[in-house]
Amino acid sequence: MSTADAAESATTDTTGAARPPAQTPAATPGSVAERAAAPTTLPAVRAGGLTWRGARREDAPAILALLNTTGEADGLPFRVALDEVTETLAAPYRDLDKDFLLGFEEPDHGPATSILRAYAQVSAPPGDATVARAILEGGVHPDRRGEGIGRELLAWQIARGRQKLAESALAARHVPAWLVVHMEDDAPERLGRTYERAGFAARRYYSFLRRDLSAPIASADVPDSDTGLRLTVWAPELDEALRLARNDAFRDHWGSQPRTRETWSEYRTAFMPSWTSLIVDDAPDTDALLASPDTDAETAAALRAGEPLVVAYQIASKYEDDFAVRGYTFGYSDNVGVRRAYRGRGLAPAVMAAGMRLMADDGMRYAALDVDTANPTGAVGLYAALGYEKQDGSRMLTIEL
């Protein structure tokens, strides 16, 4: 499991507050493009004497091997799967030549035996609406550390990130702009020092929680007062309704941005439809929802068209490559949310309990998830009440432009 989209951790409704305060920081003066101050050329990476080029789809196995070798050396509690790398390289909005930089060691007997020793990528999610983000990822093989490669590679990423922000759909807007990296709390100190020297500072903290599925699981029944609501599992005809529910649930979550149809199809290589629990409102008060200023345009169009309305959900995945690293099997809740108009009804515990039962029935030992420690909707307390306990943590670091 990679750290992609880590800022989008679980959100739920234990407080009953229909409208938590906005969590995105205010913009600073000047457009994104002005503040990005994008360089016209990118700094060269000369350290280590490697040969550098952009990425190709056929590089996926080499990138996978490098990422997992560095992950093992750094004690990361997860591993990346080949399908995840392949999916990243196939995303149509990523420019393989410009957004990736791969450094190869070429032995004396020719380039045919080149070995990937360093890797970097920069992505700017196309769905960003209120915050412009450039997300930086990469690594240097343990055998080639201490040569200055990582420092120069990070400088390249920052420069390319500034270019991506200046080229983004938000370039002319006066909204926050961030360069973003993610790091495990117990990552090597040298990594933290490298980020700090480059100007990054920790802005958000996340906890990885797990829950023993051998312990009793509470009822997954939808509250009796909500007779129009139906608990079900994911089906293809509900996927678009699920995307719209996710966007509504996360509008008041710090730093979270809408998922477009294009980005929604990503990060699904480990998706488990049979563990993904949904609550659908088969008889919504359409007039009231359409009259509400909280109803977004896409949801309004779906309501007028008579499309299904997902009101609460728990999206699950099975990251089998992480089982050996963690030392146990687990089902992972990638995302949990409740529509703003449906909060305070106890729907979050229902979808969570349903998901845990499905995972347990499939032989998983634990249920797991990551949660923003400053989640505004009471998620941390809910998970504690459901029996989840913290195992480790991570953080998001940013340069705010």
Automatic annotation (TrEMBL):
PROSITE patterns xref list: GNAT
Protein name (database record): GNAT family N-acetyltransferase
Spans annotated as Disordered: 1-40
Biased composition (Low complexity): 1-29
Pfam family, one: Acetyltransf_1
Location of the N-acetyltransferase domain: 50-223, 262-401
Record carries keyword Transcription: no
